[in-house]
Amino acid sequence: MHYDRCFGCGELDGGLHMRSTMGEHALVHSRFTVTEAHQGAPGLAHGGLLACAFDEAIGSTVGNVLRRPSVTGKLETDFVRPVPVGSTLFITAKVDGVAGRKLYASAEGRLDTEDGPVAVRARALFVEVALEHFTTHGAPDALTKLKRAEQINP
Length: 154
Ligand SMILES: CCCCCCCCCC(=O)SCCNC(=O)CCNC(=O)[C@H](O)C(C)(C)COP(=O)(O)OP(=O)(O)OC[C@H]1O[C@@H](n2cnc3c(N)ncnc32)[C@H](O)[C@@H]1OP(=O)(O)O
Known about the structure:
The protein is an alpha+beta fold. Helix content is 21%, strand content 34%.
């Protein structure tokens, strides 16, 4: 899934520019490189932007694995280690369960290599929505934009 105007995965200046790829066992892999623009304390990533990166990684996982339109209802993060500017988080995410419209997923981010130390963990509840969610609450032409970006599997 990819939408070029998305703050997480799009091409916007100042965005996170994340990409996600499906791996084995329905695990989805994403990377987030922390730049100076993502700074909170001097030299360290801002926690809110780390949460954003996990929202993106988990949202992409739910979308790609389940192929059901959904939005984040709840996102919980554990910041386990400081994440320095210049480092890359290797994020692995998975779907944990489905209960009706409720889609549960989680992720962990390792510092600088795929087997580096865990720096951030996150769990999320996504809620499945009708496609009208995006046209009613967002842009009237949202579906056209999303289809153009090949984000929806019709
Ligand atoms: C097509 C591709 C699109 C790709 C989009 C990628 C997005 C990237 C990720 C995002 O950042 S999404 C943006 C941030 N999230 C939002 O803007 C969501 C805003 N919230 C809403 O629109 C509604 O609150 C929501 C759709 C989540 C739920 O409203 P509904 O009226 O549709 O459902 P309802 O309130 O009946 O809840 C359905 C179930 O989910 C549960 N639920 C909803 N929100 C919850 C919550 N926050 N915590 C715990 N449970 C929650 C709720 O209790 C209920 O459980 P039960 O079925 O067991 O009764």
